[in-house]
Amino acid sequence: MDNSNFGPGGDVDALGNDKQPRGERPHRASARSVEFRPIEVTVQEGNVNRALSMLKRKMAAEGIYKELRKRRFYEKPSEEKKRRNREAERRRKKAIRISRERAG
Questions:
Q1: For the chain, what is the domain count?
Q2: 60: nearest Cα among 72, 48, 52
Q3: What are the pLDDT digits (tens) for 4-30?
Q4: Residue 93's domain spans which residues?
């Protein structure tokens, strides 16, 4: 690899910042780099109904149904921001309520 573009030491730019080629930088988690793993359910003793209910439970636990409802219609960015703020406020209130119940 040719390091002539990366300053005198080969890995530092003129300001002393680390300078690595884009392919070698560590990845940051973002909404686009989510790793998907399949949800698997095994059918035991030919009981398909039980396997189906297990699959539905796993999908609910993963939040797939919530995601489908959310994506059913377009959500304007302002509406998304309001929804996220409402959800965050609900989580904060729940955390306060739980901490008070544990304390007293």
A1: 1
A2: 52
A3: 554 444 555 666 665 555 555 555 555
A4: 76-104
